[in-house]
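Hey, can you fold this one?
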Amino acid sequence: MTRIKSIGRFCASDKNGYIRNDSSLKKVKPEFLMLIEEVVENYQTHLGLDLHSIYIRGSVPRGLGMKGVSDLDTIAITNKKTTNIDLKWVDMAEQELNNKFSAVNGVEFSFYHIEDILGTTTFSIIPFMIKTHSVCVYREDLTTQIPDFRADKTVGNEHLINLKNQIEQAKNALVDNDDNEDIIDCCVWIMKILVRAGLALVIVEENLYTRDLYPAYKLFAKHFPKKEPEMKQALQYAIEPPKNPEDILVILNKFGNWMIYEAEKWIQTYNPNKVKNLEIS
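Sure. Predicted structure:
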């Protein structure tokens, strides 16, 4: 079993409480640079004039990327609606880069229309990620045009409002599933969601935010010490997912249901209008 390491940090804030973006190209480790260059080339080649800008987000631009472990998450902002762009090339491009570069666990291409980034009037996770956890690696940087964010209930809502549906989606995907790769992908996805939802439960009290799993787990455990072993197991499965779906379902059916209950209580407390007709079961 892989030992859980104390890796990661909380986002720094300015004097007004706004989250500061600590991503920088200068922090990217050398082993990731050639891969980033090829990602940019892929976007340029396939999107052409439809491409507005490119961002690298997550642990890599924050200097926390681990060789062979971290994913390279990328975002392309487009000048045209993504539904009007041919994206049939994406799966092949991701597979080729995954095979060519061992420095990352996986490469992800993603696409968002510029109007969805700058035109939204409500909280949206992608503008938040661009503003707080990304670095622009091609053309115009939009971060100056995106409003600032605090570690507050608005961010907490984003992590909790869909938790029940996400857990149910994972359960449905795991039942009778014998595809090892699919099981692993699903496990990592839902366990990261659980750990980050744990942080969201205490974000109002702590005014702290992180995408990093270890500090999120530790802050949750501070407030819910009786649930620390179960959250630790979720963290372990996010790092080293089991191939047996039944092991994952055990956590989702017990700890996951408790998290749903707590999430719905939290939402009713801090944003009751979102759940006016919600019944906690």
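The beta strands are 51-57, 71-78, 106-108, 111-113, 134-139. Let me know if you want another pass with a different chain boundary.
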